[in-house]
Design brief:
13 helices; DNA polymerase, domain 1; hpI Integrase, Chain A; about 45% helix; single chain; mainly alpha; three-stranded antiparallel sheet
Length: about 425
């Protein structure tokens, strides 16, 4: 039975029996205040024994473990894909632990977390802050499950709806391209990398591939002889850095798939394979696996979108890259934006949701996902409509309004950022180096 012991002038501690039969002691209440009376210490200890009987007991000692100590244990216990593991560790190391490392887990309050989140929003972009808070929330979810503390102090989106009302954000940060803009973008890519760059842009746009999946696409993943199911592109792998080394791993979320190709793209990919002997469908200029890190976005993709003004260098030598205009209306478009664009095109064409989501390699949750199925006829209808979009975009007459003067080079730190969050050491370029 719980009891109290005197520990000094106006100081008491409660004694209680733990689930394993050993005796524990507690000297402070939930607010961190010492027990000044015998009854307050005894009553608190008695409450802990009640929790033991109800199997809801949280050992007060566990709550004194610091956030840094818990994070070190927690990150080794979670099973994450390689890139997610690197992302979680980066968020902990650079943002979360500098603020919370020495704070006991039990002392982290919702109010303190909210104040800290508001400070982060003044320093970082909303997408990055959301990622940081997601890591912190998951870490505390597991702390609750492990009975380190009773509740999660990191508010969910639903629970934070208090105070000044904020309506939905009116501006969507994702840049969407029309089929015509995707074609013009591919023409710029052709100026830099010939048929390989041209086909790469159109493959992303008309197959909805992630840039890492494009980099990891092998010859064997293209089935360009129609056996009655249409020509196909198989998504089986993606290129990714693991411990600084480029490797092939399963696609994000294990989203493998077989994508039917519109006829124009199947023919274009045959031309690409005939243009080189590399095992990779879209190799670098030097015939190696394409890199898709920071240098790719800064020196290659940015020029596809923003164009390039051909100027002699300081020694008077001509530019190594051609003069290209910027495609109007898609400034800040990233490769993943073309994946979003294909989804928009198919939604506008009113194709069945199940067929569209399967092409995106998404899983439809709930009963709808159980009872909805994609047929070959649905896939062929998608390929037919994508072919029509392509033909319309190619047949349109060039309009000067579709182009803008080449945009100036961006300042350091303002380069395109992949929505798949490559790690900082993922550098390289489609062209094998910057000009």
């Amino acid at each position: 039975m719980a009891y109290a012991e005197k520990r000094g002038p106006n100081r008491w501690r409660g004694r209680y029996q733990r689930p394993d039969g050993t005796w524990g002691s507690v000297t402070r209440d939930d607010n961190g205040q010492p027990f000044r009376t015998k009854s307050s210490a005894r009553n608190y200890a008695a409450g802990l024994e009640t929790d033991v009987r109800r199997k809801t007991f949280l050992d007060p000692r566990d709550g004194r473990i610091t956030v840094g100590e818990w994070a070190a244990l927690w990150i080794e216990s979670v099973e994450l894909a390689n890139r997610s593991d690197a992302t979680y560790r980066q968020r902990l190391r650079t943002v979360i632990l500098p603020r919370w490392e020495d704070v006991p887990m039990a002392d982290v309050s919702t109010v303190a977390v909210n104040v800290w989140e508001q400070q982060l929003r003044k320093q970082y972009k909303p997408r990055y802050v959301k990622s940081v808070m997601s890591v912190l929330r998951v870490m505390f979810d597991d702390a609750v499950a492990s009975k380190v503390r009773a509740d999660n102090p990191v508010p969910t989106l639903k629970s934070r709806r208090r105070g000044r009302y904020k309506g939905k954000t009116q501006h969507d940060e994702t840049v969407i391209a029309t089929p015509r803009q995707a074609y013009l973008l591919a023409r710029n890519a052709q100026e830099m990398r010939g048929v390989v760059g041209y086909a790469m842009v159109l493959t992303i746009a008309y197959c909805g591939l992630r840039i890492s999946e494009v980099a990891g696409l092998r010859r064997e993943h293209l089935l360009l002889e129609d056996q009655g199911q249409g020509c196909r592109l198989l998504v089986q792998e993606q290129a990714q850095y693991v411990d600084g080394v480029k490797v092939q791993v399963a696609p994000k979320y294990g989203s493998t798939g077989s994508i039917i190709l519109p006829p124009f793209l199947a023919e274009l990919l045959r031309e690409v394979l005939a243009s080189h002997a590399c095992e990779w469908v879209f190799p670098s200029k030097l015939g190696r696996k394409m890199d898709t890190g920071a240098q790719f976005y800064a020196n290659i993709w940015r020029r596809f979108v923003d164009g390039h003004e051909a100027r002699p260098d300081r020694l008077g030598r001509p530019s190594r890259l051609p003069d290209m205009k910027a495609v109007a209306g898609i400034e800040n478009l990233v490769p993943h934006g073309l994946r979003h664009s294909m989804k928009v095109w198919l939604d506008e064409l009113k194709h069945p949701r199940v067929a569209v989501e399967e092409r995106m390699r998404h899983t439809i949750p709930g009963v709808e996902g159980v009872y909805s199925h994609t047929t070959l006829a649905m896939e062929q209808a998608i390929a037919t409509d994508l072919q029509k979009l392509w033909e319309a975009s190619v047949s349109a007459v060039d309009d000067p309004a579709e182009w803008e003067p080449a945009r100036p080079p961006r300042k350091k730190g303002s380069e395109f950022v992949s929505q798949e969050s490559p790690t900082p050491n993922e550098s390289g370029s489609l062209g094998g180096g910057a000009s």
